[in-house]
Amino acid sequence: MIGGRSAGANPTGISLINPVAWVGAAGNHEQMTWSAPQLERRPEPVIADERAMVQGWLDWHRDTLLHKCAGLTAEQLKRASTEPSNLTLLGLVRHMADVERSWFRRRVAGEDVDGIYIGPGNDDGDFDDVAGADAEADFATFRAEVAACDAAVAGRSLDDTFVHPRSQKEISVRWVYLHMIEEYARHNGHADLIRERIDGVTGD
């Protein structure tokens, strides 16, 4: 529950509820601004083998980021925390979509895919280009990217390795999962503070 509203659930653990109100005179209704959907987080595993454990904790942190955004309008999601920082909740969602793609699809799976929001000459587009972004589309992109990343590494062992293209270090899939959990945990702390500043909502 966040903001006083309960989340629905489906087999994936992500609710499809996205309440939309209507305004305007009869016969001239206009749809109000989209808001981030409510969701029920998948519980973190407490007893599991290593692969299920790291996957479960990654999924819990993925859900937590969206949980911190639930019920907010696009305008609120684009609101920066406090000067001089330009951190926004939407920026964090965009950033993590790119981070997921970079580690799981490009590095582990070796897919030839470009960055989503970042690229040559625009290294911080995930955070910097939020003002004109389509929040609903960005949330859909995040969910699609998570699914694509899971599919890309589904058959790989945690002991599998790859060579990082920049550092030339050999890195294991296990390290990537642990790094991603750490990355989400750090940014979910940011999300906690940003959300509280927007509407006072706090929670785990």
Description of the structure:
This protein is mainly alpha-helical and 204 residues long. It has a single domain (40-199), classed as dinb family like domain (Four Helix Bundle (Hemerythrin (Met), subunit A)), CATH 1.20.120.450. The chain is built from six helices and four strands, in the order E-E-H-H-H-H-H-E-E-H. The protein has helices spanning 50-69, 74-77, 89-108, 125-128, 135-153, 173-199; strands spanning 22-23, 30-31, 161-163, 170-172. Strands 1-2 form a two-stranded antiparallel ribbon. Strands 3-4 form a two-stranded antiparallel sheet. Helix 1 (50-69) runs parallel beside helix 6 (173-199), helix 3 packs parallel to helix 5 and helix 3 runs antiparallel to helix 6 (173-199). It is globular.
What name does the CATH topology carry?
Answer: Four Helix Bundle (Hemerythrin (Met), subunit A)
* Name of the CATH class: Mainly Alpha
What order do the strands of the largest sheet run in, or round the barrel if closed? 1-2
Give the helix/strand class. Answer: mainly alpha
Give the number of helices: 6
| Uncertain spans | 1-31
Domain module count: 1
Proportion of residues in β-strands: under 5%
Name the average pLDDT: 87
Q: CATH superfamily membership, which one?
A: dinb family like domain
Element order, helices and strands? Answer: EEHHHHHEEH
Termini separation (Å)?
10 Å
Largest sheet composition: 2 strands, antiparallel
Q: What is the strand tally?
A: 4
- Compute the gyration radius: what is it? 18 Å
The CATH architecture is Up-down Bundle
Shape: globular
Helix content: 40-55%
